[in-house]
Amino acid sequence: MSDTHEAPANEASDDVMNHDSTDAAQAGTPGTVPASAPDAANADIASMGYEQARDELAQIVTTLEGGRAPLEESMRLWERGEALADHCTRWLNGAQSRIEEAVARQENGSERA
User: Fold this and answer.
1) What is the percent of the chain with per-residue pLDDT over 90, rounded to a whole number?
2) Is the separation of the CB atoms in 47 and 83 below 8 Å?
3) Which site in 18, 31, 50, 74 is 20 to 30 Å from 107, CA atoms measured?
């Protein structure tokens, strides 16, 4: 008999465990940030050079490691830091590709001579 009473409880807990977190974000659950907020706040990053982005990222890391920023500010900084790190990675990958292309052109030019 106890099996019949346990099944609904398990089903209910399964429903809770399988709850889609995007539903909570769309419902405006406290602590959620709209998906477009980080993009809008980080729009200036695309125009930054590598050194500027790297320097700002280093400042963010120092601030976060200090542990004195409130949670919301820490989350904002972390999101910006992620965007800055991605920008730096893309910039470095692009630079590496340009160097490899230049070396390949030079090698092809010296083989023809």
Assistant:
1) 58
2) no
3) 50
